[in-house]
Specification:
Number of helices: 15
Number of domains: 2
Distance between the termini: 56 Å
Structural class: mainly alpha
Strand content: under 5%
Order of helices and strands: HHHHHHHHHHHHHHH
Radius of gyration: 28 Å
Helix content: 55-70%
Length: 318
């Protein structure tokens, strides 16, 4: 196995290596690995080495079990880590695949500690599929308001931009009291939260007058009026004091930019699909039918833009 998998130990078992080592041993008996009294000492954790031995000697049924949702993911983490270190490529690939399958299952809820290790491992081994599965788990935790400060720390340390922005955003929505009392946050992170809160409030204030950029269908001959109608519709969504779907926007926190653009997008979608037939836009003019579909895509792009740029608004104050 050590030779077949092209690991770090590959050359140790070749005839050439044996001959060379024998000649060296005649000159010195102090070389590591030349005798039982002076073995090779591996600087590894016991649980990682145990996982490697498990992969070499476990029964087929045990291997098959590790590919199910009942698998011991911590054992697979240890295996992937030591396999990566010693370049057991096929073993590493198999362990990463098993972990990806395990954590891609929506019913699996790993501990925060294991999720941190999974995220670190995905970066160490450059496994994008596993990283995507880990980030999805983090997002679920953030949506539940759990382990937010831990997510900030992990995302900062591993430079996970999208996760970092969402983690800061989730912590910001918890409020100042939560920031100040969370022991996992440092002073620099609290300053970033204050900066983000200020920036997002300003963006929310400007949002009604900043509709997504609209490109018109080639059949639209009244582009100016169509553009003005969409701008008025956008303002109506974000500024109306009436109830119903439009009025829901005003129930959100003043700095909750992401929720506002997502709700605006859903309202535009409902209007484009004819699910808000009673919405009166007569004062704003009418949009071209095909431009309305383009406006929906523009709103979707706006949501993605906000999601992608969240981290930029939580900047250090110079």
């Amino acid at each position: 196995m050590l030779v077949k998998d092209k690991s770090t130990f590959d050359s140790m078992f070749s005839l050439e290596s044996y001959t060379q080592n024998t000649e060296d041993a005649l000159m010195s008996n102090n070389s590591e690995g030349e005798s039982d009294e002076n073995p090779i000492r591996l600087q590894d954790k016991a649980e990682e080495f145990s996982a490697l031995m498990w992969s070499l000697y476990s029964l087929p049924a045990e291997i098959a079990f590790s590919m199910t949702v009942q698998a011991n993911d911590l054992q697979l983490i240890h295996l992937a880590r030591i396999a990566h270190k010693y370049q057991f490529r096929s073993t590493e690939s198999w362990a990463l695949s098993a972990l990806t399958t395990y954590h891609s299952n929506a019913t699996v809820s790993p501990s925060v500690q294991n999720l941190v290790q999974i995220t670190e491992l995905s970066i160490l081994c450059d496994c994008k599929a596993l990283l995507n599965a880990a980030v999805a788990k983090w997002k679920r935790l953030l949506g539940e308001g759990r382990a937010v400060a831990v997510a900030i720390g992990v995302a900062e340390r591993l430079n996970l931009r999208s996760l970092l922005g969402l983690a800061y955003y989730s912590m910001m929505l918890k409020g100042r009291e939560a920031w100040d009392s969370d022991p996992h946050l440092n002073s620099r992170q609290r300053i970033r939260l204050l900066s983000g809160h200020y920036n997002l409030i300003k963006l929310c204030e400007d949002l009604p007058s900043s509709p997504p950029r609209l490109t018109h269908d080639h059949s639209c001959v009244r582009k100016g009026k169509c553009k003005n109608a969409f701008a008025a519709f956008w303002r109506l969504i974000l500024m109306t004091k009436d109830g119903g779907l439009v009025g829901q926007v005003l129930k959100l926190q003043s700095a909750d930019l992401l929720a506002k653009v997502m709700l605006a997008e859903s309202i535009i979608r409902a209007f484009a699909e004819g699910n808000i037939p009673t919405l009166d836009l007569s004062e704003s003019g009418e949009m071209h039918e095909k431009c309305l579909q383009i406006a929906l895509h523009a709103a979707q792009d706006k949501v993605k833009e906000v999601q992608d740029n969240l981290v930029d608004w939580f900047s250090d104050v110079v």
